[in-house]
TrEMBL record:
UniProt organism field: Spathaspora passalidarum (strain NRRL Y-27907 / 11-Y1)
UniProt-listed GO biological process terms: cytoplasm to vacuole targeting by the Cvt pathway; Golgi to endosome transport; Golgi to vacuole transport; Golgi vesicle fusion to target membrane; positive regulation of SNARE complex assembly; vacuolar acidification; vacuole inheritance
A molecular-function term among this protein's GO annotations: unfolded protein binding
Protein family membership: Belongs to the STXBP/unc-18/SEC1 family.
Lineage: Eukaryota, Fungi, Dikarya, Ascomycota, Saccharomycotina
Superkingdom of origin organism: Eukaryota
Protein name: Vacuolar protein sorting-associated protein 45
InterPro entries given in the database record: Sec-1-like_dom1, Sec-1-like_dom3a, Sec1-like, Sec1-like_dom2, Sec1-like_sf
One Pfam family hit: Sec1
Cellular component, GO annotation: cytosol; Golgi membrane; SNARE complex
Length: 611
């Protein structure tokens, strides 16, 4: 299967609701869908109500509410749950006292032998038609972007196990057995990669990973990254549509609350959003104007005056289009509200000036003194922008031009109520003081070039994507000042996509490699050091991924040639915007008190001994 998450979604929808085997009793009869709290978000983000209804699903119930279910023995039941102890216990209770005629069980991730035995013993009424393992234990956001929900994993003794299980589920759904590469300076990734390797090798004994790479000449790569090695990208103001919606309004499982209404963003069913999601602000407004003009042209022909002068046959054709026009007008109103809110936020926060200054700082577009002068103008003006934007500018400046004396002056200005309202909180002040030291070790150890370049490796001007595929490098540079910054991910991927046979690119020298047994058997023991051009890369960022990194992935794939086609998808344990990332940073700083830091060092020493 190609690295297209939309195809995964379609595959599992058909498996759940449109089975090839039409002989079963549930094939074409009314059904109840029984889900748990883990699969409910997957259903809601992947499938629409009309899709479910068109496949005879007339009712959706929670298995946690098993005791409150009404008995409807004339209905068949599809059970779609995560095979955790809690959900299996609910299922066992339901089978002991069934409310429906028969049951098809779809368990989302691998099931243990003991769990299967418990289910079989509970089926005393013989109502189970079949039991199927499926593998979509993650959320599909875009066709190239996924998210893993780890909200319940923190309660576990070893949350890396659950994280590993979900990533292995992703691999199985994509039918890939990869070489695992991870950033060596991250203890979290070292533990996670070891769990994934163990998981793959263990499940290989169950034949789950047999023949998954049979159509691949080169082993796919699972690239594990730590957000702490690039704390900059989530702080940069985005200027493309989907990213701006998340930054200014917030997207939660593809749902957005705007103008007092809840709207859904789904590129599968929204043609305008699919075509506009990666467009910059200027191109976006132009495209929306054309979208509105097309609507006006189409609806003009159906005006009352035109309807009066048409024959019955043409009138019938026009009337059948009215529902389509209504849907189109609703979609225009949805995007008009979104664009209006984005425009409102850009103006209110003075982002034309602030966004440009962010790019100037991070990409080195002006000299140190010029940048400092522009930053002071913002800090000295109480009406220049919000407190949060001022903090982000100082954070970017502090890691680009580290000068303790300057930083102290900036913090003093930020804490002056006549210049900044509201003034920074305790956590924000601590972050400003310690941002450089908190992340400098991660940044420098992740990059392995000369000492002068270690810190600045994460600051790079926009790179022409075509140069990654050995194409003509004479294409014009992007002159849009707001799109100069490119995430560090671009540099890492360039080293993997275009490997050099006689040396390891500097950008990927900080990566360690683990090779599952199945991959060694198929590609040989030298697969870890192979210089063959990789075709498939699955990227996972622990600590969160951004929509801008998803856009980068999209553009890299679009820029690859047919002869050297690259397939990429990306995901993380959350989808970040600057607010979410800053809150994470505040938590990191608050945890770094002397007592906590000492305790963490002890834990890390113990972990090193274990690993």
């Amino acid at each position: 299967m190609t690295l297209n998450l939309s195809k995964v979604k379609e595959f599992y929808f058909n498996k759940l609701f449109s089975p090839k085997d039409k002989s079963t009793a549930t094939a074409s009869s009314p059904k109840v869908l029984l889900v748990d709290k883990y699969t409910t978000p997957i259903i809601s983000i992947c499938f629409t109500q009309s899709q479910l209804l068109s496949n005879d699903v007339i009712l959706v119930e929670l298995i946690e509410d098993q005791e409150q279910l009404s008995t409807m023995r004339h209905l068949n039941c599809i059970v779609y749950i995560h095979p955790c102890a809690q959900s299996i216990n609910h299922l066992v209770r339901e089978l002991h006292s069934p409310h429906f005629q028969n049951y098809q069980l779809f368990l989302n991730n691998t099931v243990s032998k003991n769990q299967l035995e418990s289910i079989a013993e509970a089926d005393e009424f013989e109502v189970i038609e079949k039991v199927v393992e499926i593998f979509q234990d993650y959320l599909i956001v875009n066709e190239n972007l996924f998210s893993i929900d780890l909200s319940d994993s923190v309660k576990q003794v070893n949350p890396a196990i659950e994280e590993s299980n979900k990533l292995v589920s992703l691999l199985l759904s994509l039918k890939k057995t990869p070489v695992i590469k991870y950033e060596s300076n991250s203890l979290d990734l070292k533990r996670l990669s070891s769990e994934i390797l163990y998981n793959i090798n263990t499940n290989s004994n169950n034949n789950l990973f047999d023949d998954l790479n049979k159509n691949s000449d080169v082993a796919p790569i699972l690239l594990l990254l730590d957000r702490k090695n690039d704390p900059i990208t989530p702080l940069i103001a985005p200027w493309t549509y989907q990213s701006m919606i998340h930054e200014f309004i917030h997207i939660n499982k593809n749902i957005v609350d705007v103008s007092g209404e809840t709207v859904i963003l789904d590129s599968q069913f929204d043609k305008f959003f699919k075509e506009a999601m990666y467009l910059n602000y200027g191109d976006l407004t132009e495209k929306f104007q054309k979208y509105v003009e097309e609507y006006k042209t189409q609806t003009k022909s159906t005006s009352l005056d035109n309807l009066q002068n048409t024959n019955l046959s043409d009138l019938k054709k026009m009337l059948t289009k009215f529902p389509e026009f209504k849907k189109l007008s609703s979609n225009i109103l949805k995007h008009l509200n979104l664009l209006s809110e984005i425009d409102k936020q850009i103006s209110a926060q003075n982002l034309w000036e602030i966004g440009e200054l962010q790019q100037v700082i991070i990409c080195g577009l002006e000299n140190h003194q010029a940048v400092k002068t522009r930053l002071l103008e913002v800090l000295d003006n109480p009406h220049s922008t919000t407190t949060i934007n001022k903090i982000k500018l100082v954070l970017l400046y502090s890691i680009r031009f580290h000068n303790p004396s300057e930083l102290s002056d900036f913090i003093t200005k930020l804490n002056d109520p006549s210049l900044t309202n509201p003034t920074p909180t305790y956590s924000q002040n601590e972050l400003l003081k310690r941002f450089k030291t908190l992340f400098n070790s991660n940044i420098t150890s992740a990059a392995t070039s000369s000492s002068d370049n270690q810190l600045t490796n994460i600051f790079n001007k926009k790179i022409n994507f075509k140069t990654l595929f050995n194409r003509d490098n004479s294409a014009q540079h992007n002159d849009n000042v707001y799109l100069q910054y490119t995430p560090r991910l671009n540099e890492l991927l360039s080293g993997l996509i275009n490997p050099v046979s006689d040396s390891i690119p500097a950008s990927i020298q900080g990566l360690s490699t683990l090779v599952p047994d199945k991959v060694k058997q198929q590609y040989g023991n030298s697969v870890a050091t192979s210089s063959a051009q990789v075709q498939d890369i699955i990227i996972y960022i622990k600590g969160g991924v951004t929509y801008e990194e998803s856009r980068l992935i999209y553009e890299l794939c679009e820029s690859s040639t047919t002869s050297s086609k690259i397939n990429l998808i990306i995901g993380g344990d959350k989808v970040l915007n600057s607010d979410i990332w800053l809150n994470n940073l505040y938590d990191m700083v608050n945890e770094e008190s002397p007592a906590v830091a000492s305790e963490r060092i002890d834990r890390q020493s113990q972990l090193r001994e274990i690993l």
